[in-house]
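Second opinion, please. Please look over this fold, written as tokens:

===
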Amino acid sequence: MAVESIAAATAAPPPRMVELGSAIPQEPTPQMAGQFDAALAQSGAVSPAGGVPPAIQTMLSTLDRVNGEAKGVTDYARTAEASGGELTPGEIVQLTMRCQEFMFHCQLTSNIANRSSDGIQQLFKQQG
């Protein structure tokens, strides 16, 4: 009898199952979009009259490219997951390669942004 009670006391608790939401951000509701527009109007934000400078366009296009890569990796993984069966070794290698390529581009973009920021800080220090 004592052995059963000790075994029951030391037994691992049952695993907890948690439902997670989608990893992809959800679309804003019309109410949220209206609140954002009202807050933007209240802040008095003015859009630039001359358009977006070329340096900003280049920066945003780089971020869009990284975002597109993330979407491509996600789509590939979801397609592989939806196929039903297990992934073949070739599919696993392909998915791993695409993830590594995506991470390389993220690190490269982050490194460029950090160095640009450091350069701007150095300019301000020299002028001040």
